[in-house]
Design brief:
The chain is an alpha/beta fold and 441 residues long. The protein is 24% helix and 32% strand. The protein has two domains: 234 residues, 3-Layer(aba) Sandwich (Rossmann fold), CATH 3.40.50; 148 residues, Coagulation Factor XIII, Chain A, domain 1, CATH 2.70.50. The relative contact order is 0.10.
């Protein structure tokens, strides 16, 4: 029996498909299923267990082919499981594959009526909600044209609009939103936040780590049809990105040409080495280099624990090469309290390519930053050293959230994330030399 506090509960969930070696074998299996069973079995999902509480935003991540869409189809009732138990509690609306549930010969308006009816709405309900659905989808006169004439963006606009206007208790969103333009994605994310505040349960599949960190209460990582990890979004996403980067590194190692080294590479030791990493949430890399220390200081070298608006600071990262590095890159990631990457940069991005490093060589890189006026919260700096280019690199050592600092909370309130430097002029004429002087009297 379902527990009222649960929206979805899966136990030992598995889904398999027969794989035939030839069309003839498939035909024999169709007519003589007991006499010809030479097919092999592909398990799209294997022994997947999890629970989703009501009102929770549950994100699912994983590589293409990891079983994410299959899992959503099981939850939506489109596919039956091969093994295991699945319980779904609540009125469900799903946005899965593009055009799923739409008849291409019907107009958009006719498909709204059809889908609304399938989702349990009466004709009066659909008629009342139709203007809101049209406004949200914003496809104009195409609402009365056959769906087969729609672009992929128009299709996802209408499909999402229908899904969020039927008052779902459980909303399933697959990666279909990825085809939408930026303007519409922003609108969709605002609607997702509205549904979240209203208590709806949301299952969201995406490749966007920032989306997971921003809206997810928990995150499930699927790998080759099995649960790799399930829990706090920040932790799961960090582990997932690390694994994807490691796989890409192994690919680059297999296909990249042998590195060349500069004969004039500097072997001088830095006058100051930073020793010690204040915090390590997660660490990964191929081990070809090691971050020795991370510190945030004033330009004079005094440690900074609370940042002030427009304060110059220095993020110091010391590292040692364990193997030869042809093109070392040292960088950092600044994250906010939601785990969203707030600022990212590195030596190559800043136009400062580093000399190659031989085994045992150490380096200290200083990033001179001016901190703008941010909302009072905690911020974390991650540090990294890699080898390669901006487009193709092997991660040697990456430390998640190596140090944390806070923004001074005693200042004037900040609405939004950041207060931009701003000067106000009234009834000024732009483009004249005296404009800046006029602002300052």
């Amino acid at each position: 029996m379902d527990t009222p506090g649960f929206a979805v509960r899966a136990s030992g969930l598995s889904k398999s498909y027969p794989v035939f070696s030839s069309p003839a074998q498939r035909l024999r299996q169709l007519f003589l299923p007991q006499r010809h069973r030479g097919e092999t079995t592909f398990w799209a999902l294997r022994d997947v267990s999890f629970h989703i509480s009501k009102g929770e935003t549950f994100c699912i991540i994983g590589q293409n082919g990891s079983g994410k869409s299959t899992l959503l189809q099981l939850i939506a009732g489109i596919l039956p499981p091969t093994e295991g138990n699945l319980a779904v509690n609540g009125k469900l609306a799903a946005l899965l594959e593009l055009g799923a549930g739409f008849n291409p010969e019907f107009s958009g308006r006719e498909n709204v009526v059809l889908n609304g009816s399938l989702l349990g709405l009466s004709h009066d309900d659909i008629r009342q909600r139709m203007p809101s659905i049209e406004r949200f989808a914003e496809i104009g006169e195409f609402i009365d044209q056959p769906v087969k004439t729609y672009s992929s963006g128009m299709l996802v606009r209408l499909a999402f609009s229908v899904a969020v206007h039927v008052d779902p208790e459980l909303l399933i969103v697959d990666e279909a939103l990825a085809v939408g333009d930026v303007y519409f994605r922003h609108r969709c994310m605002r609607k997702v936040h509205e549904l979240k505040r209203s208590g709806a349960t949301i299952i969201y599949v995406t490749h966007s780590a920032s989306d997971v960190r921003a809206i997810g209460d928990r995150c499930l990582w699927l790998d080759a049809g099995q649960v790799r990890e399930c829990g706090d979004p920040e932790s799961v996403v960090s582990h997932y990105l690390a694994e994807m980067l490691n796989r890409d590194t192994r690919y680059l190692d297999a296909v990249a040409p042998a590195p060349s080294f500069s004969q004039s590479a500097s072997t001088a030791e830095p006058p100051e080495l930073i020793h010690g990493v204040p915090n390590v949430d997660h660490r990964w890399g191929n081990g070809n280099a090691t971050i020795l220390g991370v510190a945030l200081t004033t330009p004079s070298g005094r440690a900074v624990s609370t940042m002030q608006p427009n304060q110059p600071v220095v993020l110091r990262v010391s590292a040692r090469a364990n193997r030869a590095l042809a093109r070392p890159i040292v960088g950092f990631v600044m994250r906010n309290h939601l785990g969203i990457d707030f600022a990212v940069s590195n030596t190559l991005r800043e136009g400062f390519p580093l000399h190659s490093m031989q085994p045992g060589t150490t380096i200290t890189v200083d990033f001179h930053l001016t901190i703008p006026q941010l909302y009072p919260s905690s911020f974390a700096f991650s540090a990294a050293i890699a080898d390669g280019t901006l487009d193709a690199y092997a991660m040697c050592d990456f430390i998640d959230n190596a140090l944390s600092v806070s923004m001074d909370a005693s200042l004037q309130p900040i609405y939004g994330y950041i207060h931009l430097p701003c000067e106000v002029g009234v009834n000024q004429r732009l483009g004249q030399d005296t404009y800046h002087e006029a602002l300052h009297g």
